[in-house]
Every structure is written in structure tokens, then in C-alpha cells.
């Protein structure tokens, strides 16, 4: 059994800037744990720009964060145990985890060893099964979860922050205090934001108005030049060649119109 005064809980504040998952106190690999493997389920949610909820503590249990389920996002899990223990020797856990997150902000760092990759489906979920709690050196494993690809049918303007998960994770009781029971079915809720592209008629003020069936229109005729302003949201991972192979803007004019690019 593990020592009574040594607990580990998920204390992830799931904002767009910070995701921290790890123990609030040290846990030693010498402590015996009955469980050998855990399942980790990604529950991918997306919100319209500015609608993402405020900081909510993720307990590792099933929760309701709102938003919409997002299918088609690829998440890759990496083993960063060796780097984590190297960093924590001369620092604290929070600083070590923040350093790994920073290294993985654009793409996974070279020291991260790929374990598996899954694509969200159904209700925006992807489950990584049978992740080992300890390694062959009897150290507790530390995993890094990175959103490596986003769907093609929606523009993700703010990508999920990398998640660092340090084993083991213990269940919480009704008062949110850690128990002696290891959570072998961990639920994570990474966030995305999206924004709508817009197309504006920018020189409408150059024309008089005409009212048809109670609705006002610009009074234009053949040969008039109509200026439009396009606001297009660029994918957050546009710089990652492994995630985005191309990005095209196709503006097809209605019948009777032709495009003139300035």
C-alpha cells in the first residue's frame, strides 16, 4: 500500500494558457500500487471565440465542461519520464512540468518518445488504453499529450495546450480530497476555440440605396466595382508541416460577378 501521507491528484486548471496535471505532494515509486495500467480518455471540446469558460478544475473524473464535441482532432501521447526526472532534480514539479509544456508548444520536443496516437470520434473522444504506471526502472511514468492535428472542416484558432500527466493519479472523494484509490480511468478535457470567417461589402457607402420588399440594398448596376473585405482565420498550427499540408482560400463569386484582386 502507498504511504498515507503521500497523495497525488489531478489539479489541472484547463485554461487556454496553462494545463498542469500532477501530484500536490511527492509520490515515490517505492510505494506499492496494485494497478499496473491506466486508460486516459481525451474529451475534446470546442467553443466559439470568447465563449470558452473560465478556469475549471479537472478532477480526472467525468465532468461537464460545456462546449461542443470536436471530432477529427489527433492527439499523440509521448513518454517524457526521463526528461521530467532530469528537470525535477534541481527544481520543483510545477517548474519541471511548465518547462515540458513550453518545449511542446509548437511541436513535440525531440526528447519525447512517441507512445501512441488517436483521433477523436463519436462524442469527441479518444482513449489511450493500458498506459503503464511504472517503467522498467521502477519510476512512475510521466506522459505528454499533444494535439498534433486539427480537423479540416473547422478552423481551430486556439489549439489545446499540451498536457503533462504524472503517474499515479488518485481518485478524489466527495470533498475533493485524495483517496487511496488509484484512478485507472482518467478523463481529460482539452479545449479549442474557433472563429467565423467574414466577408464585408466595404464600399457600400458609394452607392445610393434601393428598397425592395422592405429590405434595403445598394443600388448597383453593370460595370460597378464592389469592394469586399475578407477576414479569414488562420489555423493555430499553420506552422506545423506535419499537421497542415496546405491552406487555401477559395472565394467563388456569384453568377454575374467576376473577381478582381487588388
TrEMBL record:
Judging by the UniProt lineage, the source's domain of life is: Bacteria
Give a yes or no for keyword Signal in this entry: yes
Keyword tags: Signal
This chain's protein is named Gram-positive pilin subunit D1 N-terminal domain-containing protein
The record lists the organism as: Pseudolactococcus laudensis
Pfam families attached here?
Answer: GramPos_pilinD1 (PF16555)
Give start and end of each Gram-positive pilin subunit D1 N-terminal domain. 36-193
Leader sequence range is 1-29
Amino acid at each position: 500500500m502507498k504511504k498515507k501521507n503521500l497523495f497525488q491528484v489531478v489539479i489541472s486548471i484547463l485554461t487556454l494558457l496553462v494545463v498542469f496535471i500532477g501530484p500536490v505532494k511527492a509520490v515515490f515509486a517505492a510505494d506499492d500500487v496494485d494497478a499496473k495500467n491506466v486508460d486516459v480518455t481525451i474529451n475534446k471540446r470546442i467553443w466559439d471565440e470568447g465563449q470558452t469558460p473560465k478556469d475549471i478544475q479537472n478532477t480526472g473524473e467525468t465532468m461537464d465542461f460545456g462546449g461542443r464535441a470536436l471530432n477529427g482532432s489527433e492527439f499523440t501521447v509521448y513518454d517524457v519520464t526521463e526528461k521530467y526526472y532530469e528537470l525535477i532534480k534541481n527544481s520543483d514539479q510545477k517548474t519541471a512540468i511548465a518547462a515540458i509544456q513550453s518545449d511542446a508548444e509548437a511541436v513535440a520536443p525531440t526528447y519525447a518518445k512517441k507512445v501512441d496516437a488517436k483521433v477523436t470520434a463519436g462524442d469527441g473522444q479518444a482513449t489511450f488504453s493500458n498506459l503503464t504506471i511504472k517503467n522498467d526502472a521502477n519510476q512512475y511514468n510521466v506522459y505528454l499529450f499533444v494535439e498534433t492535428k486539427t480537423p479540416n472542416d473547422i478552423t481551430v484558432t486556439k489549439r489545446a495546450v499540451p498536457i503533462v500527466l504524472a503517474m499515479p493519479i488518485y481518485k478524489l472523494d466527495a470533498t475533493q480530497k485524495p483517496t487511496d484509490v488509484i484512478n485507472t480511468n482518467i478523463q481529460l478535457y482539452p479545449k479549442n476555440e474557433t472563429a467565423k470567417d467574414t466577408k464585408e461589402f466595404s464600399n457600400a457607402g458609394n452607392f445610393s440605396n434601393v428598397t425592395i420588399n422592405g429590405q434595403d440594398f445598394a443600388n448597383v448596376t453593370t460595370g460597378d466595382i464592389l469592394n469586399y473585405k475578407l477576414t479569414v482565420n488562420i489555423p493555430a498550427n499553420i506552422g506545423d508541416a506535419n499537421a497542415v499540408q496546405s491552406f487555401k482560400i477559395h472565394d467563388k463569386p456569384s453568377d454575374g460577378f467576376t473577381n478582381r484582386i487588388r
